[in-house]
Amino acid sequence: EVQLVETGGGLIQPGGSLRLSCAASGFTVSRNYMSWVRQAPGKGLEWVSVIYSDGSTNYADSVKGRFTISRDSPKNTLYLQMNSLRVEDTAVYYCARGSSTWYDFDYWGQGTLVTVSS
Amino acid sequence: SYVLTQPPSVSVAPGKTARITCGGNNIGSKSVHWYQQKPGQAPVLVIYNDSDRPSGIPERFSASNSGNTATLTISRVEAGDEADYYCQVWDSSSDHVVFGGGTKLTAL
Fold first, then answer.
1. Residue A37 has pLDDT above 80, yes or no
2. How many CB pairs under 8 A join A and B?
3. For residue range A53-95, what is the model confidence (pLDDT) as tens digits?
4. How many Å lie between the alpha carbon of B91 and the closest alpha carbon of chain A?
5. Which residues of A touch B (CB under 8 A)?
6. For residue A56, what are the contacts with CB-CB under 8 A and spacing of at least 6?
7. Dmax (CA) of chain B
8. Which residue in A44, A47, A109 is closest to B97 by CB distance?
C-alpha cells in the first residue's frame, strides 16, 4: 500500500528555516516524480517544487532560491528545505507522488502545517 | 506563465448533473487532471489524462478537454460529492505544474 507521511511543520519566525520530510512506503521515491504542493489557509492549491527520477529539480518562482527539494534513497524520504521564510509561505504542505507520463499526482500525504509569524 | 481559470462555485440539485469548467489557452493540447478535496483532507485524483478514471472513482465522474476549455462532469450528484475541485496541467514551456483556482461544488 502506498503511503506518504509528512512531518516537520510548525511555527517559525519570518526569516527562519524549516525542513519538511515526507516518508514514503509501498514504492520507491527515487524512481518516481515527486512534488511538494502547498495550500494557504482558505486558498487553493499551489505547486511548489518537483524532483524527477533522474534527480533534476524545478521550483515555482515564488520559492526559487529559498527552497530546496531533495531525497534520501536509503530512507525512501523526500525533503523540502525552506529558508528565508516569509509570512506568505504559511500553508499546509503536501508531498505528492506523480506520474512522469501525464504529470498528475496519484498519491498525496495528509499534509503538514507551516506557520510563519512573529 | 500558464493560467487555468475555474468558476469559484457551482451549485446543483442532488441527482442532477454538475459541470465544472477549466479554461486555459489551447488547453486541449495538454493533459488535464482533476482533483477532489473535501474539508480538512488531502486532494484525491478523480480524473487524469483528460478523461481517465483512477480505480475506485465512480463512473459518475467523467471529463473532456477541447479547445480552450476542459470540463469535469459529475452525474447524479450526491451530497457526498460536495467538495472543492481543482484542474491541473503540466506546462512544458516552463516545466511547471499549474493548478486552477478551484471550484466549490454545492449540492443544494
1. yes
2. 61
3. 999 999 999 999 999 999 999 999 999 999 999 999 999 999 9
4. 10
5. 35, 37, 44-47, 50, 58, 60-61, 94, 99, 102-106, 108-111
6. none
7. 41
8. A47
